[in-house]
Specification:
Layout: H1 7-15, E1 24-29, E2 37-43, E3 47-52, H2 61-77, E4 85-86, E5 101-105, E6 110-111, H3 119-137, H4 154-167, H5 177-185, H6 192-199, E7 205-207, E8 216-219, E9 225-228, E10 235-237, H7 239-250, H8 268-282, H9 288-314, H10 327-344, H11 346-356
Antiparallel strand pairs: 1-2, 2-3, 3-5, 4-5, 6-8, 7-10, 8-9
The chain binds adenosine-5'-diphosphate, 2-acetamido-2-deoxy-1-O-phosphono-alpha-D-glucopyranose and magnesium ion.
Length: 358
């Protein structure tokens, strides 16, 4: 999804369907999300985020917006800063049509990071995601629509990967033999989280499911977390997913799409910083099995994301927004590099988690 041409002309009339304060003066693409088209809308009074929602990824737009309204109301009622859905002029939470749009108040004086530049910021994000987990514990899961079924069901993701490989619709498999063989050779490691949820050894919780660092807004002055955003994927899941997805993105020495693999390493000190924040926040509710499996969760989310990027590459780049040919393959490579380094660090990671939970 792109907005390279004159966004202003194309989207002004859409923005004016919402209850905005002031006259629209500027609209431009914003942020680095891979799923929605995000636009910064400026009026002579305020700033807003307008998103063309990705209805291919989230076909149940009603269920999606119900989840977001429900969760944000729950948080706001507890005094937690969160996304504010700006209604349309006719009182709806979003515009539903061939294309769907929603608007949020722009949360001012905040920054999003695309990479960890300071361990303290990562620790702060860990604490915030841990606290977010605690707030969601009081949210009634039966009110949630499962907007993407089996979102972090890694064996299902692996089956999707194998189907894309089998089809090899764009003849790309020959360019990524090493990555394919890495994913195939780790097949016996993919089942532990879904099995744990199924047999009850892992508690089913309400989770965010997409806890990468750019889905949290940090205060521009203090670097303390202000608000967890990108609430699209809030669904029942495991704590392993939320902890793991943060680690896969943040505990790396490089960006998710670094092309020079020699720069990409799993950074155990960043892992420790995040664990300190996250585990410190959830230590009263985390179970022994979760503690034991958090390092595995980091590995699992990383290799799962790698296989999702590769599945998309093999299928012609239709899911994640890409900026150049081969972008998804580059992303896959960083994830697999990190996953293999995590495997070697499991014992140390476990010690860190147990220490951080005390
Ligand atoms: P995607 O689902 O495509 O990742 P996000 O909802 O995460 O989209 O938004 C993309 C980016 O836009 C975020 O990473 C953040 O930088 C910015 N953003 C989103 N909502 C807000 C908001 N309410 N205030 C300020 N920035 C925001
Ligand atoms: C997508 O929406 P965004 O950019 O925050 C994706 C996540 C992936 C992530 C990889 C709904 O997150 O699952 O982990 O890209 N979101 C969805 O960077 O698929
Ligand atoms: Mg996002």
């Amino acid at each position: 999804m792109e907005c390279t041409k004159d966004c202003m002309k194309e989207y002004k009339s859409v923005a004016e369907l919402f209850s905005l304060e002031g006259e629209v003066t500027d609209i431009r693409p914003y942020g680095e999300g891979h799923i929605n088209l995000t636009l910064l809308v400026t009026t002579d009074k305020k700033r807003y985020i307008m998103q063309k929602m990705n209805t291919k990824v989230f076909p149940d737009s009603d269920g999606l917006m119900r989840n977001i309204c429900g969760v944000t109301e729950h948080l706001r009622a507890r005094g937690i800063e969160t996304l504010e859905v700006i209604p349309t002029k006719d009182g709806k939470s979003y515009i539903k049509g061939e294309e769907c749009y929603r608007v949020y108040a722009f949360i001012e004086n905040t920054v999003t990071y695309q990479k960890v530049t300071d361990a303290k910021v990562f620790e702060n994000s860990g604490r915030a995601f841990g606290e977010f987990q605690n707030y969601l514990a009081q949210f009634d899961a039966s009110k949630l629509t499962e907007v993407i079924a089996r979102f972090h069901d890694t064996p299902k993701r692996f089956a999707d990967f194998k189907a894309a490989l089998e089809a090899d619709a764009f003849g790309r498999a020959k360019e990524c033999e090493a990555e394919i063989s890495f994913i195939l050779s780790h097949a016996d490691t993919y089942g532990k989280a879904v099995e744990g949820l199924k047999n009850g050894t892992l508690p089913l919780r309400v989770t965010h499911n997409d806890t990468k660092l750019n889905n949290i807004l940090m205060d521009a002055e203090t670097d303390q977390a202000r608000a967890v955003i990108d609430l699209d994927t809030i669904m029942p899941g495991s704590m392993l997913y939320d902890f793991g997805d943060s680690i896969r993105f943040g505990a790396s020495t490089a960006a998710e799409d670094e092309q020079d693999l020699s720069k990409v390493h799993f950074d155990i000190s960043l892992f420790a910083a995040y664990a300190k924040g996250y585990c410190g926040a959830v230590k009263d509710s985390i179970t022994e099995t979760e503690k034991e499996l958090l390092p595995y969760g980091a590995y699992l989310m990383t290799i799962e994301c790698g296989m999702r990027f590769l599945t998309d590459y093999l299928s012609g780049d239709t899911y994640f927004a890409t900026k150049y040919a081969g972008h998804n393959l580059v992303r896959c490579r960083t994830q697999l590099r990190l996953a293999s380094e995590m495997e070697a660090a499991f014992e140390e990671m476990k010690k860190i988690v147990f220490e951080a939970c005390k």
